[in-house]
Design brief:
five-stranded mixed β-sheet, 12 strands, alpha/beta, 8 helices, binds zinc ion, seven-stranded mixed β-sheet, 234 residues, 22% helix
């Protein structure tokens, strides 16, 4: 859930008149409340890791964004249901005004690689969450959220500039699936040889220090994500 310190997460990448938003957490509202974030952007591509509400509720807010919004997801691969149908369930009437659902362009994301506007987006399916999810790679960043500790993400993240990895659990490691402990996120960053690790998908009430205490011994260049964090990719 969003807190006074953190919205549910998403990341914005800019490239000229286009932008790409990874996931549409509650943080997507900032694209409306701070229009400078989209200044000069004509087309906003939203790529979804999966369909849980903490990653999609922000789509509702984007109806007020000052750009044309296109949504990309892997509903067919992840859930056996076209992304357009899933988005329509979420944003169709009566849960949103009819004008919102009918005004959206929804694409099925091609796996394992796709051209999303001017962005090249690679993906892999993560099977260690309550619903399956996508790890994403684009423009020097890798985004792995809503997954248990998945060693296959090491190769996927290999050599990327910045790894954003979930750290749902303030622990060194954890049994089972669903989410990843901070120590294991650090292990993936170290094994993948990334330059920097940013911990995301932080549980409300967990202090940054509690995560860093487990991640830093595994990987020194670790930060905890926060709203408005700017991360250079080149
Ligand atoms: Zn989820």
């Amino acid at each position: 859930m969003p807190t006074d310190d953190r919205e549910t997460c998403c990341a914005l990448l800019r490239n000229g008149t286009e932008a790409l938003l990874i996931d549409a957490g509650t943080g997507a509202r900032r694209l409306v409340t701070d229009p400078s974030l989209l200044a000069g952007v004509e087309r906003l591509h939203v790529v979804l890791t999966h369909f849980h509400l903490d990653h999609t509720v922000g789509l509702f807010y984007l109806a007020d964004a000052d750009a044309t919004v296109e949504i990309w997801g892997a509903g067919e691969v992840l859930e056996g249901t076209p992304t357009s149908e899933l988005i329509n369930r979420l944003l169709g009437s009566p849960f949103a005004p009819p004008s919102i659902g009918s005004g959206l362009t929804v694409h099925e994301l091609s796996l394992p690689a796709a051209e999303v506007g001017s962005f090249q987006v690679e993906s892999r399916v993560q099977s260690m969450h309550s619903n399956r999810s996508l790890a994403l790679r684009t423009a020097g960043l890798v985004w792995c959220t809503d997954t248990g500790f998945d060693p296959e993400n090491v190769e996927f993240a290999r050599g990327s500039r910045v790894l954003f990895h979930e750290a749902f659990r303030p622990a060194d490691t954890t049994e089972g699936t669903g989410h990843t402990a901070a120590g294991d996120a650090g292990r993936i960053a170290a094994a993948a040889g990334v330059d920097r690790l940013v911990l995301i998908h932080v549980v409300s009430g967990v202090e940054d220090r509690a995560l860093l205490d487990f991640a830093l011994p595994q990987f020194a260049a670790t930060d905890v994500g926060r709203d408005g964090l700017v991360v250079p990719l080149s």
